[in-house]
Amino acid sequence: QVQLVESGGGLVQPGGSLRLSCVASGSIFRIYAWDWYRQAPGKQRELVAGIAISGMTNYADFVKGRFTISRNNAKNTMYLQMNSLKPEDTAVYYCNRRQGPLPWGQGTQVTVSS
């Protein structure tokens, strides 16, 4: 069974950077599009960024120009490079595949605060 493991979160100052990783253990990673989501307390989970099988990327308006999504199919891993972080980026970040979503992983907490 495929398991999703997110990592790389932490506490950073506004304007700082983090690099998140999503490992899909047991997945045929390369044949799926993958997405990053986030969920802040009291809010719904929202799409942050996505990457297609081709490598084509898409981003929510609120992260365009600041975040970069990438993938390494050989490692069954997806990344989210987050720069110029803002307090409103504070959330738990999750990954999942676009088609046939898997059970959600634990997510990784990102806290942006001074």
Structural class by secondary-structure content: mainly beta
What is the overall shape? Answer: globular
Helix content: under 10%
Sheet having the most strands: 6 strands, mixed
What is the string of SSEs from the N terminus onward? EEEEEEEEEE
Low-confidence stretches: none
Measured distance between first and last alpha carbons: 40 Å
Radius of gyration: 13 Å
Strand content: over 45%
Query: For the residues shown, what is the average pLDDT?
Result: 96
Secondary structure tally: strands: 10
Number of helices: 0
Give the strand order, joined by hyphens, for the main sheet: 2-10-9-4-5-6
What does this structure look like?
The chain has 114 residues and is mainly beta. It is 0% helix and 48% strand. It contains no helices and ten strands. The chain has strands spanning 3-7, 10-12, 18-25, 34-39, 46-51, 57-59, 67-72, 77-82, 91-97, 108-112. The strands form two sheets. A six-stranded mixed sheet has the order 2-10-9-4-5-6, with no helix packed on it. A four-stranded antiparallel sheet has the order 1-3-8-7, with no helix packed on it. The N and C termini lie far apart (40 Å). The mean pLDDT is 96.
